[in-house]
C-alpha cells in the first residue's frame, strides 16, 4: 500500500464512473499545473531513485527505455539551467505520459515480499 509508489485511491476511483467523471478533470488540471510535462518528463521520472525497489526496477528497463529516460533527464537539466521550460512542441503530451516504471517497481516489491516470507518461514519438526 505504501512504498516508493505511495498511497493511491486510483483503483477505487476508477471503479466508479461518477467519481471518475468528477476526479479526472481535476487530475488532468493538477498534472498540467505540476509543470513536469513542460520539461519533457513523464510521471515516473519523478520517483525518488534512492529507494531500493526503484533502483532494482531501473535496472530492469530495456536499453531503449533507459536511453529515453536519460535523454529526458538531460534535456530537462538543460532547460532548468536556461531557466525556462521547453518549447511547446517538445512538452510531453498527456497521452504519452504513461507509467513505464510502475510495473517494474510493483514486481520488485512483490518479489521482496515473497523473499521476506520465505526467509522468515519457521520449520518445525513433527
From TrEMBL:
Q: Which UniProt keywords apply?
A: Electron transport, Membrane, Mitochondrion, Mitochondrion inner membrane, Respiratory chain, Transport
Q: Which organism does this sequence originate in?
A: Macrolepiota fuliginosa MF-IS2
Gene3D superfamilies assigned: Cytochrome b-c1 complex subunit 7
| Places the protein is found | Mitochondrion inner membrane
Q: What does this protein do?
A: Component of the ubiquinol-cytochrome c oxidoreductase, a multisubunit transmembrane complex that is part of the mitochondrial electron transport chain which drives oxidative phosphorylation.
Q: Which family does it belong to?
A: Belongs to the UQCRB/QCR7 family.
InterPro entries per UniProt: QCR7, QCR7_sf
Protein name per UniProt:
Cytochrome b-c1 complex subunit 7
Specify the taxonomic lineage.
Answer: Eukaryota, Fungi, Dikarya, Basidiomycota, Agaricomycotina
Q: Which Pfam families match?
A: UCR_14kD
Q: Which GO terms describe its biological process?
A: mitochondrial electron transport, ubiquinol to cytochrome c
Q: Name one GO cellular component term.
A: mitochondrial inner membrane
**Main subcellular location of this protein, as a coarse class:** mitochondrion
Q: What membrane topology is annotated for this entry?
A: Peripheral membrane protein
| SUPFAM superfamilies with a match to the protein in the record | 14 kDa protein of cytochrome bc1 complex (Ubiquinol-cytochrome c reductase)
